[in-house]
Amino acid sequence: MPSFRAFRIHNDDAGHRAGIETMTLDALTPGDVVIQAQWSSVNYKDALAGTGKGKILRRFPLNGGIDVAGVVAASTSPAFREGDKVLATGCGISETLDGGYAEYVRLPASAVVALPGSLTTREAMIIGTAGYTAALALLRMTDNRQTPAKGPIAITGATGGVGMLGIDIFSRAGYEVHAISGKHDRFDTLRQLGATTCLDRHALAFSGKPLDSARYGGLLDNVGGKTLAGLLPLIAPYGNAAICGNAGGPELATTVLPFILRGVSLLGIASAGSPRDVRENVWQRLAGEWRPRHLDTICTREVALDQVTSVFEGMLAGGSFGRTVVRIAP
What whole-number distance in Å separates Cα of residue 150 and Cα of residue 72? Predict the structure, then answer.
């Protein structure tokens, strides 16, 4: 197999550095399945890893990119054959395994999922880890008896990838969605995705009471911190708060009262390490009854492999909006 391009991240005696390099297959981390990558995406973790501003990689050097979709180029696993369209997210990709910012990716078969037939590889990467996280939250909430009848779902960080895809996915599943974001100039777009109400997070005023009048049937929270603490007292009896981010800080100053008096459940959404059967289930739903209807709106930027660094700083500064896909093929 010929040499190929990859966005490779180093951290050694010379310090942190990252950029496009030429490498060969035998330099990749081990795996059963070789994927000729077509598309990837840019996530917050990718920006942290690529700039060295977060401790994402657990070994060096590694190729960046926690998401990838493409075509199987070679496989020693009976589960996959040459020519199969596949995707992979999480599972240690760009943490302990070489990631998707490369023309070829080699992964353990356990990390690879067959691409559902109704999705293209590009569509799969618009969804990517962000959409998978939102759909995993919906799966866990419905498994815990969340229903539209309990009331609206509040979604924080609504202009990010998880937030925008969450609005689309939850509204597609029949839920009324209230979007919370500090970017009020984007509210028209959030309404197009399916939000019935948009709230400026800067204008949120919480009473500080351990319990307040129930306004929401459930919550998909990307923020944590004071925002999560303020919203928990507003969740209706036996509603669920699915937590998948900490943009507002990891601390949580709250009381036990929403949990012991209203039966509210706090659900942790750890998308990177979810079991294989769960990943397959979620991707089938994302290609079926939960398929986002507005992927062209949610995908706000497309860049080539050698342009990924142009996205990182703006994302870390809070300037991202929607999803950025990375075109791997020349």
Answer: 44
What is the residue-wise DSSP string for 207-276?
Answer: ---SS----EEEEEES--HHHHHHHGGGEEEEEEEEE---TT-S-----SHHHHHS--EEEE--GGG--H
* DSSP secondary structure letter of residue 114: E
Q: What is the pLDDT of residues 230-269, one digit of tens each?
A: 999 999 999 999 999 998 889 999 999 999 999 999 999 9
Structure tokens belonging to residue 166:
């969450």
d(CA 292, CA 290): 6
Q: How many helices (H) and strands (E) does the chain have?
A: 9, 16
4-115+293-327 maps to which CATH number?
A: 3.90.180.10
pTM of the entire structure? 0.96
Q: Which stretch of DSSP H or E encloses residue 310?
A: helix 309-316
What sections of 98-199 are H helices per DSSP? 121-143, 161-172, 187-193
Distance, CA of 68 to CA of 83 (rounded, Å): 15
Contact 241, 232 (CB under 8 A): yes
What residue ranges do the domains of the chain occupy? 4-115+293-327, 130-268
For residue 25, what is the DSSP state? G
Under CATH, which architecture does the 130-268 domain have?
3-Layer(aba) Sandwich (3.40)
Query: For helices 44-51 and 309-316, what crossing angle results, to 10°?
Result: 110
Q: 3-class DSSP state for residue 200?
A: strand
The helix (run of H) or strand (run of E) holding residue 295 is: helix 295-298
What is the rounded CA–CA span in Å between residue 129 and residue 323?
11
Q: What is the pLDDT of residues 239-248, one digit of tens each?
A: 999 999 998 8
